[in-house]
Amino acid sequence: MTTNQATSHPEELVIILRKPVVLGKGEGALTYDKLTLREPTAGELEKATTSTTSDIGMSITLISLVAGVPRGVAEKIGQRDLKEANEYLAGFTEDGPEPGPTE
């Protein structure tokens, strides 16, 4: 990673979910209203890429691993939140987008 990439890509990103995700019912229900993402480890990338054959499945698995939430939470996030998470995580891979100019 070049110096420019390191300074333009935050170490951590907190995504406030547009629609909180609830897992479970009643008193045991857990509500997730945010995802805290960071740079994925090599092991997390390996697990995500070998766990499924679809791109969306890989994204869901990677978000779950990096954010430390159950896969069911990542499966239920909205498309806009998924897109935001994917764009952030893609910045850590060779295939990810190059950072654009800062304003």
Automatic annotation (TrEMBL):
Among Pfam families, the record links this protein to: Phage_TAC_7
Q: Which InterPro entries match?
A: Phage_tail_E/E (IPR019289)
Identify this protein by name. Phage tail assembly protein
Organism equals Cupriavidus campinensis
